[in-house]
Amino acid sequence: xxxxxxxxxxxxxxxxxxxxxxxxxxxxxxxxxxxxxxxxxxxxxxxxxxxxxxxxxxxxxxxxxxxxxxxxxxxxxxxxxxxxxxxxxxxxxxxxxxx
Length: 99
Prior knowledge:
The protein has about 100 residues and is mainly β. It has a domain at about 25-80. Helices cover about 5% and strands about 25% of the residues. The strands form 2 sheets. It has a two-stranded antiparallel sheet. Strands 3-4 form a two-stranded antiparallel sheet. A hairpin with a 2-residue loop joins β1 (about 40-45) and β2 (about 45-55). The mean pLDDT is about 75.
């Protein structure tokens, strides 16, 4: 095992088990259109949230577009492990990072 020096730079490595974070993926053609939820972006207490209504399925991935319609990123849902855990800090990503 390599030695770790106290003056080492960079973040500590983190391993996230995929079984705890990845939801089951179901092909779109196997879901009735009326079972796909409508998504609405809202801000609650300063936090952006997606509200899913009128359905039981959500997309496995959402593209993020800039004002010109260019794809600048994507969001993907993860399985919620413990809804009682405190909310982590909110981090924002500049769109210019993806141009």
